[in-house]
Amino acid sequence: MAVVMLAVFAGGYLVLAGADIGMGMLLPVLGKSQDERRLVIAGIAPFFLGNEVWLVSTAGIVAGAFPGLEHDLLTGLFPLFVVLLTGWVVRDMGLWLRGRVDAAAWRSLCDGLIVAGSWALGLSWGGVLGSILFGGGMNAGSAVGMVLAALFAAHGAGLARWRLTGVLVERARRIPSSYPVTGVALVAVMVAAGARLSLSDAASTGTALSATAVLTAVMLPLLVASQALVWWTFRDRVVSPTYL
């Protein structure tokens, strides 16, 4: 059961957060001016924090149910996880701080942080998944990372087609993408990578494993319900900027 929960939460993160990561990667392509970029950011503003909950939950499952896996991944891919965490902080910092100062230079700086952080996330996740899939440590992961980062970008373009309007959505349509197709592709990569892991050898025993499985099973419907509510509330296309 813990393996199933790990797959569900990890897949949920890649599909949901992968799209806002991809839109951040494409920010300069979709938005040519600061006002246009603010509209692009408004496309992900209601969702990105909720999407990150899936990653936090995934990390909790790994720590509680598969501590051996946590040790192996951090030991073998530590530099990639440093880049990943740094990119996460930098991207979110750019999103939160962009609208706090009414100055063009400040907004340009924050736009740069969003793009750099998003690319760091896309490339590092691509590197992690590539390293697990093909072995060979970070060298193999780096070779595959660019391909998977492009998949994140295409996934973001698919979300942009749903969320944006006018010239912004026209720019998104120039990028070959389909949100359902890229979402399935990300899940397929995740499942293939998961099949390469020796989860049984890394699993906890007894109370820790059972407690983690039960807790995540209880959390899942609550998280899905809250995510569905957010998506329903903000289902319309973006026509004006938000607080970010």
From TrEMBL:
Any one cellular-component term (Gene Ontology): cytochrome complex
For membrane topology, the record states: Multi-pass membrane protein
Q: Which UniProt keywords apply?
A: Cell membrane, Membrane, Transmembrane, Transmembrane helix
- The answer to whether UniProt assigns keyword Cytoplasm to this entry is no
Q: Where in the cell is it found?
A: Cell membrane
Which InterPro entries does its entry note? Cyt-d_oxidase_su2
Q: Give the highest taxon in the source lineage.
A: Bacteria
Q: Which residues form a coiled coil?
A: none
Alphabetical list of PANTHER family matching this protein = CYTOCHROME BD2 SUBUNIT II
Recorded family membership = Belongs to the cytochrome ubiquinol oxidase subunit 2 family.
* Protein name, as recorded: Cytochrome d ubiquinol oxidase subunit II
Q: State the organism of origin.
A: Actinomadura barringtoniae
